[in-house]
Design goal:
By secondary structure, the protein is of the alpha/beta class. It has twelve helices and 26 strands. The chain has three domains: 21-76 and 84-130 and 262-327, FAD/NAD(P)-binding domain; 133-258, FAD/NAD(P)-binding domain, CATH 3.50.50.60; 347-468, 2-Layer Sandwich (Enolase-like, domain 1), CATH 3.30.390.30. The radius of gyration is 25 Å and the shape is globular. The N and C termini lie far apart (100 Å).
Length: 469
């Protein structure tokens, strides 16, 4: 083929490639972010809208299971074992693109990315959160690490953990505590430095905080509360940490775990409303643009009691958001009858599990809410002489006027996690003290406490007696 015919064929092929390229860079649903909220949004949307083209854009080559990061030192032993397979998306006919979103044009409904322009019908922001930095001298020294969800960074972090001996963890929240309990199993010297009077004080009342601190000390972990880090000392690498009480801690490594800040700049630059705690959304994840949604750690949450904004970053909450948004992108298929956000946590320290849901007594008092607590101590088997029997301690909080459940805390064996979830369900269902006292539960000698002394019911009974006095 020669001359004009050949030239026309070349033009036609190039035009066809351009058309195919344009078609390939369109999504009915474009999700920015490949963490838990992005994945669950995509999977939920696929089930509810089987004919829609769904694209997930993420900047990471691989995605880790975030809640398991603290256990990569000894329990899991390798970052490679904590990877979410891309097949969870691709086998469900969800396209995965690896690139970074640079800007959003809401007027023309497209996103500029490092892999080209992507047009969308519905856009979901699942941009997550970034570790908070703290203004401490020496924070830039080598062997000072933050808790990032990036595979190469985590590989370097845990490689360093194995190479060093003295490790200081700044921050005594859940993540700092969990990192410490896993690392100490490698026979490292661990010190936790916490600014508040107790570790995990934002989630538990003092009696549970002190129980956790005792468990940490039993494991050989040094705990410094009511203490701040003044300076990280070293020439090139960290060598020591100076505390506010004047004490110097030997340190070959520092792990900073002082919370997260939501990634909102992409949304802010696009004119999406940003609140004090993240992207502003309604009960269905909708932003001020009806075609732009947001889910997960980047969103501003609302307290289930006051309705005021708060920052609670949990994969479980993120996945709840994702189910709501993924179901209702194009039409209202799943109505939310439970509004507000209910923080529900569980963890394990040594051989003892701890769980909490809703408000602590301290938080209720700060909100000027009069509360009555119901407490009970029992064992997790019946009879209690069974070989794996373990003590369970429970505390439930009720509004003195309405008798509504406001929160609960539990410690004991691994069943604590599901007891905590039971408390969480009762919170969301707006159970009163009377409702819990009269509710039905299933029990078994080898699996649960006796029906005579079932912990949730007995704690409600204790509160009911106080309310009736």
């Amino acid at each position: 083929m020669r001359g004009p015919e050949r030239y026309f064929l070349i033009i036609s092929k190039n035009f066809l490639k351009s058309v195919i390229s344009l078609i390939a860079m369109y999504a009915d649903v474009l999700i920015i972010g490949g963490g838990p909220s992005g994945i669950v949004t995509a999977l939920t949307a696929r089930k509810n809208y089987p004919d829609k083209k769904i694209v997930v854009l993420r900047k990471e080559d691989k995605v880790v299971i975030p809640c398991a990061i603290p256990y990569l030192s000894s329990s899991i032993e390798s970052v490679s074992k904590d990877i979410v397979s891309d097949e969870i998306l691709t086998k469900n006919d969800i396209e995965l693109l690896k690139g970074e979103a640079k800007s959003i044009n809401r007027g023309e409904k497209y996103v500029e990315t490092t892999v080209g322009k992507i047009s969308y019908d519905k856009l979901v922001l699942a941009t997550g959160a970034t570790p908070q930095k703290i203004p401490i001298e020496g924070i830039e020294l080598e062997n000072v690490f933050f808790i990032k969800k990036e595979v190469p960074y985590l590989e370097k972090l845990f490689r360093t953990v194995r190479e060093v001996q003295n490790i200081v963890v700044i921050g005594g929240g859940f993540v700092g505590v969990e990192f410490s309990t896993d690392i100490v199993r490698l026979k490292k010297k661990i010190s936790i430095v916490e600014l508040l009077p107790h570790v995990v004080q934002l989630n538990f009342d003092d009696e549970f905080c002190m129980q956790i601190e005792e468990k940490l000390k039993e494991m050989g972990i040094n705990v410094y509360t009511n203490t701040r880090v003044e300076k990280i000392i070293g020439e090139r690498k960290v060598e020591k940490v100076l505390l506010s009480n004047g004490k110097e801690l030997e340190a070959d490594m520092v792990i900073v775990s002082v919370g997260l800040r939501p990634n909102v700049e992409l949304a802010r630059n696009a004119g999406i409303n940003i609140g004090r705690c993240g992207i502003v959304v309604d009960d269905y994840g909708r932003t001020n643009d009806p075609d732009v949604f947001a889910v997960g750690d980047c969103v501003e949450r609302r307290d289930f009691i006051t309705g005021s904004c708060r920052s609670v970053m949990l994969a479980s909450l993120a996945c709840r958001d994702a189910r709501v948004v993924g179901s209702n992108l194009f039409e209202m298929k799943r109505l939310r009858r439970i509004v507000g956000d209910y923080p529900i946590f569980s963890t394990i320290i040594g051989d003892t599990a701890f769980g909490c849901a809703g408000l602590t007594e301290r938080q209720a008092k700060e909100m000027k809410i009069e509360v009555v607590s119901g407490e009970f101590l029992t064992v997790n088997r019946h009879p209690g002489c069974l070989p794996d029997a373990k003590q369970i301690k429970i505390k439930l909080l009720f509004d003195k006027k309405s008798h509504l459940l406001l929160g609960g805390q539990v410690s004991g064996d691994k069943a604590v996690a599901e007891i905590t979830n039971l408390i969480g369900v009762a919170l969301q269902a707006k159970f009163t003290c009377e409702d819990i006292y009269l509710m039905e539960v299933g029990t078994h000698p080898m699996l649960t406490s006796s029906p005579i002394v079932y912990p949730v019911i007995k704690a409600a009974e204790d509160a009911l007696m106080k309310l009736s006095a």
